[in-house]
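Two folds, back to back.
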Amino acid sequence: MTDPATPDPRRPLTVVIGCDTFAPDINGAARFAERLAAGLVGRGHDVHIVAPNQRYRRVRPRVEVVEGAEMTVHRLPSVRWLPHDWLRFVWPWRAKPYARKVLDEVKPDVVHIQSHIIIGRGLAHEANERGIPIVATNHVMPENILDFSVLPKRTTDAIIRWAWGDAERTLSMTRAVTTPTRKAADFLESTIDVSGVIPVSCGIDESNYTPDLEPRPQNRVLFVGRLTTEKQIDVVLRAIATLDPALQVGFDIVGGGDQRKNLENLARDLGLGDRVVFHGHVSDDELRRLYSRASVFAIASIAELQSIATMEAMASALPVVAADAVALPHLVHDGENGYLFTPGDVDELAARLTDVLTADPDERRRMQQASLDGVAVHDINRTLDTFEALYRGEPLPD
């Protein structure tokens, strides 16, 4: 990988963060970019975000308040990906010209791309030509994006092969490549010709959450995230439908997505209509309230490169029942802060939910404390320390 000049460690940095998804989008990659940017601003750095506009119109760079911090956001004209309920993208052939204009205006010390797809790709190519250090974080698997494709499988497979090849070419330009977990790093290294991928947690500010170790008056399962196919929320619904009626379990689903109507129909067909609440998108205060009143957090997803929602649940002292897939076992240690189950196995998920919901008070408190202990390593300040070191070309903190 190239390693251009190292920024002066004695002064604040000017950082361009390239995002193919950013606020007002609600997803893990966008949330990470927002928290990273706000944290960097809080440390005195000048942060510029490059992200899609919500319309096909370019607006002048303007200051926006994100996570309580002011930063300059460069919104680029974008179009809707019609098979998806919110995804927008910049025309690929316009990415480099837009990147050129941003880099001419900002003259950053470092560029941090959040994907190798379009905006990140354009910024990486232009920054590389100028000798600007590039750090890349991978949150994306092309297979997940193409879940929303209407193309034939043979065409989809060819696009995926091309996308991974293009990712390899883009990431070869960078000073460092990071991804949220060691397992995700191993996956990236085994998929394309890239080495030394650094696992860096998305990070979480535990002070934003209110852990409650007291017993719950009602049994409530909680899920937070996008309502999409790979999240397999239908598996959780089917498992809840098989639970002992005496447990009187309710299910709170927070988030929006293209599968909401299908999931509402499934809940009705399973006889859960009066026990399942689809909250849609909620405020931060309401989300904290839902975490605090829940008995257990359940996630059946098979596509998590980390899972900010799971970390939020842990910071709220919730036991977690999660699919034994991708990066979730990094957060959920079976028998400690909850349980893992075989992905897609409705009966096993129901059994593990029952284990949590029928645990005696001491056992429940032990799992809650294990969640709090386990999320401590994901403190956002450790994440910020690591990225500052990567930006400056310094040795990484322990």
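---
second:
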Amino acid sequence: MKALIYHGPGRRSWEEAPAPRVIEPTDAVVRVDAVTICGTDLHILKGDVPTVAPGTILGHEAVGTVTAAGGSVGIVKPGDRVLVSCISACGRCRYCRVGMFGQCLGGGGWILGHRVNGTQAEYVRVPFADTSTHPLPDGVTDEAALMLADILPTAYEVGVLNGRVQPGDTVVIVGAGPIGLAAITTARLFTPSHIVAVDPAPARLEAAKRLGADLVVGAGDDPAGAIAELTRGLGADVAIEAVGLPETFELCTRLVRPGGHVANIGVHGAPATLHLEDLWIRDLTITTGLVDTYATPTLLDMIAAGRLDPGTFITHRFALDDMAAAYETFADPTATGALKVVLARG
């Protein structure tokens, strides 16, 4: 089969690789019908995730068809169309028992495209198939379901729920890439009074307005001044960091009001300064997190019911063999306007 293989920082190739097979009785093999690229994949290629070994197949998001299943797999079977979650869960450990699947101690967590071969391939082996895939109803398209593999549950759980967005809040989202846009979409479920998007790219700010941002702040603008004017000097109730840079995290801590919440989603490859000399007196709550995907069934129900339309995040479509072109497009959003790219089997 063909797969996108990581060969160390800055090096990747779409090349022949051994086809996966069932190894453990809890495994399934899934034919990849649709796959996407995540900002985390770009972080890996930058060298920000040194735990990824050269030779690993990248990718942790896919929709596909089960082709084989181990003897202990009881929920999915060959022929089933499934969402492959970015998080694998053993279902038995201390963390899985309380829904913290991202912290799985039994061999799961974020492993696909990280510690084991991932989804940017023609086929993928999915460990713990019963607890790491979601059977898809006929009315949900591959493209819509694909947005549930990572960006929607990540934005919802790590951003909106961890940030405790409430009706009437002012929510500022720093970073209007795919995760930030998903945070706008899912924050709207809680009817905040204002959603503010901060990003230097005009195309992403246009997308933010289209998806429900009430105010956008671009390059050369003053985000602190805009938030102060909007909130009569108080600051935002919730600031969601969706970039992963020291300066964007520190900006969030400046934009939030005393007693507010800073919810960090971004993947950080460098230290950020926590200015406790200023923050200690402001009663802030700062949260971090890896998505657990406990909300995926709820979000899937909302898509099936027509309450969410995640297809609006998709800007570019490619054949699965066009992996190199898809990466080049996704990695240069300023020039291409890319938000989410989808690669589908022909």
